[in-house]
Amino acid sequence: MTTRDDLYRLVDQLRPETLDEAAAALSQYVPVDGVAEPPYPRSIGTLTKAPADLSARVGDYLAEGFGR
After folding, report:
1. Nearest 5 degrees, angle CA 37-CA 49-CA 20?
2. What was the pLDDT predicted at 27?
3. CA distances from 43 to 19, 40, 46 (A)
4. What is the per-residue pLDDT across 7-64, written as a single tens digit (0 to 9) for each?
5. Complete DSSP assignment for 30-53
6. Contacts of 57 (CB under 8 A, 6+ apart)
7. 45: left (phi over 0), alpha (psi -120 to 50) or beta
8. Degrees (nearest 5) of the Cα angle 61, 64, 68?
9. pLDDT score of 67 more than 70
10. How far apart are CA 27 and CA 40, in angstroms?
11. What is the DSSP letter of 66?
């Protein structure tokens, strides 16, 4: 089992140029407003600008070349 001391030792060994990436990776495990959420894949939210009727007309959009 990993302890906090194990993590502290790893952080102490990080190169300065990797600190932002390491912080981003760890921040997904920190509760927001006291509620922990599971980490989501990067692909979540990629369709935020998709048409509102996408699910109803997916066949039409794919036939028109949606996403190309």
Report:
1. 45
2. 86
3. 23, 8, 6
4. 999 999 999 999 999 998 988 888 777 665 666 676 666 666 777 787 788 888 788 8
5. SPBTTB--PPPPTTTTTTTTS-TT
6. 51
7. left
8. 90
9. no
10. 12
11. T
Nearest to 11 by CA among 21, 50, 1: 21
pLDDT given at position 59:
86
Positive or negative torsion for Cα 40, 46, 49, 52: negative
pTM of the model: 0.44
> Residues near 51 by Cβ (< 8 Å), separated by ≥ 6?
57, 61
